[in-house]
Amino acid sequence: MRWIRFSQRGRRAYGILEGDRISEVAGDPFNGYELTSQVHALAAVKIEVPVIPPTFYCVGLNYPAHVLEAARKLGLKAELPAQPDVGYRAVNALIAHEEEVVIPDGAQKLQYGASWWW
Q1: How many CB atoms lie within 10 A of CB 45?
Q2: Cα 31-118-98 angle, rounded to 5 deg
Q3: CA distance 111 to 33
Q4: Under DSSP, is residue 8 helix (H, G, I), strand (E, B) or coil?
Q5: Are 4 and 15 a contacting pair, CB within 8 Å?
Q6: Which range of residues forms the domain containing residue 82?
Q7: Which of 49, 59, 107, 110 is most buried, by CB atoms within 10 Å?
Q8: How many Cβ atoms are within 10 Å of 4's Cβ, its own excluded?
Q9: How far apart are CA 35 and CA 48, in angstroms?
Q10: What is the CATH number of the domain that holds 34?
Q11: Does residue 34 lie within any of the structural domains?
């Protein structure tokens, strides 16, 4: 079963994705749901961020290749941390499928990252 959170005409909902069709549900995958009679074409909806967590923490040390690549590009010696780095991220940093990444004015450092929910 593949869940999807989507919006159409300003209304957000969860659904179950089957091929290029979404069977809308009443409820959500966390607290229970029932299938509705609503079916949407995937191409006719906007894919939303899968969940909006109340708190969003990141734990780093799972991308050593990223650290090594960044150091190489900067001509620096790569130093992998001995322990994972834990940091808070604002939930408004999450963006949905095909949305633009907004870089704030005055940003001095930017690193990419992505998550997938399958």
Answers
A1: 19
A2: 100
A3: 37
A4: strand
A5: yes
A6: 56-93
A7: 49
A8: 20
A9: 19
A10: 2.30.30.370
A11: yes
